[in-house]
């Protein structure tokens, strides 16, 4: 009622537009968060903590959220795992790989405002006490760190084995904190694998896993990291008939790099166009053109990026299949144009 009355005096602008001048988190149109700290981690990585505004619901350990930033006047969105423990203000740990992540690492300052989407994802801790194995590599440790920070200090019956792979000790995220947690809590055991000297874990036989965690077959397991690690671990658990005990979190999916000739993409509702080659996704083409593209996982899993195909032909970069049915809902995050394409977005 108050906002409706105030609109008489603020027209043609909405009262929310003026409220944002006082409180940058106040917006009925877009969830936001203000950066409260930027903490350097290992080389090229930082943890960005933020205080979300109204509309955010508390995250569960292991979930991720879409984060939006404006770069050269264009709002760019990416999905990041939340590394803070459940029940606390959220944080993301970002490594400077890719345009948006590099911008976050190099340019974010306390007081900056981030655009947010609510936390989501089902890479979650089990509901009851159970021995756990966490198998991570590189930045794949971020959702698992949220789980460890949530579980280990609060549960005296916690039994967690973390096996983390990094190139060198200097590249290992959260190494000092994990050492402190393991020293303070008997329920956490941490094993680091430094691939520059130790090589990668060999999944062609169970020997490496047996040495690192002899009872791995009886534990609920979580794996997060590069696609090769996820594929190898999934095969190992399948071969040993314990596939149901493995939860996998994928940050990326393998896409074809020589899918076709590409073409012109027309974003009809946005009145914008872009030219993309045959290995550039429609989602990326739209974002580069300044189109607000719906998306979530960016891996062809969550289907949040679906938009109707109005005309033209697209190719699925995972399978190579083509689609050209007018009105068909297509996944822009794993599709590329084959000639001129019109999208209803």
UniProtKB/TrEMBL annotation:
Domain FAD-binding FR-type: 28-126
Pfam families: Fer2, NAD_binding_1
Keyword Mitochondrion: no
Entries under PROSITE patterns matching the protein: 2FE2S_FER_2, FAD_FR
Required cofactor names: FAD
Keyword terms: 2Fe-2S, FAD, Flavoprotein, Iron, Iron-sulfur, Metal-binding, Oxidoreductase
2Fe-2S ferredoxin-type domain sequence ranges: 263-345
Gene3D superfamilies per UniProt: 3.10.20.30, Nucleotide-binding domain of ferredoxin-NADP reductase (FNR) module, Translation factors
InterPro entries, alphabetized: 2Fe-2S_ferredoxin-like_sf, 2Fe-2S_ferredoxin-type, Beta-grasp_dom_sf, FAD-bd_FR_type, FNR_nucleotide-bd, MRET, OxRdtase_FAD/NAD-bd, Riboflavin_synthase-like_b-brl
Domain of life assignment: Bacteria
Residues of the signal peptide: none
Classification via PANTHER family: NADH OXIDOREDUCTASE HCR
Identification of the protein by name: Ferredoxin reductase
Taxonomic lineage: Bacteria, Bacillati, Actinomycetota, Actinomycetes, Micrococcales
């Amino acid at each position: 009622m108050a906002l409706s009355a105030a609109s008489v005096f603020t027209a043609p602008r909405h009262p929310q537009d003026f409220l944002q001048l006082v409180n940058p988190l106040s917006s009925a149109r877009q969830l936001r968060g203000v950066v409260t700290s930027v903490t350097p981690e290992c080389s090229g990585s930082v943890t960005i903590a933020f205080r979300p505004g109204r509309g955010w619901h508390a995250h569960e350990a292991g979930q991720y959220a879409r984060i939006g930033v404006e770069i050269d006047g264009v709002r760019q969105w990416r999905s990041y795992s939340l590394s803070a423990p459940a029940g606390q203000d959220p944080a993301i740990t970002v490594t400077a790989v890719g345009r948006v992540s590099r911008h976050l690492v190099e340019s974010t300052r306390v007081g900056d405002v981030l655009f947010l989407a609510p936390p989501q994802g089902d890479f979650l801790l089990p509901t009851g006490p159970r021995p756990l194995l966490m198998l991570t590599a590189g930045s794949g440790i971020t959702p698992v760190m949220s789980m460890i920070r949530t579980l280990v200090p609060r549960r005296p019956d916690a039994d967690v084995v973390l096996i983390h792979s990094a190139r060198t000790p200097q590249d290992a995220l959260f190494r000092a904190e994990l050492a402190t947690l393991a020293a303070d809590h008997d329920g956490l055991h941490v094993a680091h694998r430094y691939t520059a000297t130790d090589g990668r874990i060999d999944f062609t036989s169970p020997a490496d896993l047996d040495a690192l965690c002899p009872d791995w077959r009886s534990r609920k397991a979580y794996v997060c990291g590069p696609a090769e690690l996820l594929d190898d671990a999934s095969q190992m658990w399948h071969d040993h008939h314990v596939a149901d005990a493995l939860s996998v979190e994928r940050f990326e999916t393998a896409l074809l790099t020589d899918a076709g000739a590409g073409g012109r993409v027309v974003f009809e509702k946005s009145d914008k166009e872009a030219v993309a080659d045959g290995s550039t996704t429609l989602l990326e083409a739209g974002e580069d053109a300044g189109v607000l593209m719906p998306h979530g996982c960016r891996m062809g899993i969550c289907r949040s990026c679906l938009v109707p195909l109005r005309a033209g032909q697209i190719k699925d970069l995972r399978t190579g299949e083509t689609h050209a049915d007018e009105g068909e809902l297509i996944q822009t995050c794993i599709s590329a144009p084959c000639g001129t394409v019109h999208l209803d977005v």
